[in-house]
Amino acid sequence: MFRKIEEKDKESYFLLAKEFYASPAVIENVPSDHFERTFREMMRSDVYVEGYLINDGTDCGYALIAKSFSQEAGGLTVWLEEFYVRASSRGKGLGKEFMRFFLDRYKNKARLRLEIEPENVKAEKLYLSLGFQVLNYKQFVYRGAADERKTPPTR
């Protein structure tokens, strides 16, 4: 159903990530070299990022998990950074099953976080049913030198 992304999965991961970034689930696209950097980091170590392929007979989705330390939370914060399942594979329980795995794997961490687009009502319903709570934060971004995208998202 899902497994850690390996070197042999590069093409499949790139294809799925590009699909995700072309979908309404994200505000803006990212340059292709960001996929390359993320993949290299996943292959180097799982200290900062872990990747999982989701499979229902064929690779149909992926998840990226990022890690940071939070004083506010009092320890390691684990982000479900990206979570994508192709439309043709939705409704089969893959998302819920992966979320159960995610919650079990990281249950002893200080905080688990994720974000969604406000229009993603189905995802919001799933996350609320699993015990996630809405944070009423506004998010800000400062684009560093490694991020070529200097203009704000259009949405």
In short:
19% of the residues are buried. The chain has helices at 10-21, 32-44, 94-105, 121-129, and strands at residues 2-4, 49-55, 59-70, 75-85, 111-114.
Name the helix and strand elements from N-terminus to C-terminus, one letter apiece. EHHEEEHEH
Q: In DSSP terms, counting alpha (H) and pi (I) runs of 4 or more, how many helices?
A: 4
CATH architecture: 3-Layer(aba) Sandwich
| CATH homology group | Gcn5-related N-acetyltransferase (GNAT)
Kindly report the spatial arrangement of strands forming the biggest sheet. Answer: 1-2-3-4-5
CATH class descriptor = Alpha Beta
What's the shape?
Answer: globular
Question: Measured on Cα atoms, how large is the radius of gyration?
Answer: 15 Å
Helix content: 25-40%
Please, could you describe this protein's structure?
The structure is a single chain. The protein contains four helices and five strands; from the N terminus they run βααβββαβα. By secondary structure, the chain is α+β, with helices and mostly antiparallel strands. The protein has a single domain (about 1-130), classed as Gcn5-related N-acetyltransferase (GNAT) (Aminopeptidase, 3-Layer(aba) Sandwich). A five-stranded mixed β-sheet has the order 1-2-3-4-5, with helices on both faces. Helix 1 packs across helix 2. The longest helix has 13 residues, at about 30-45. The mean pLDDT is about 90.
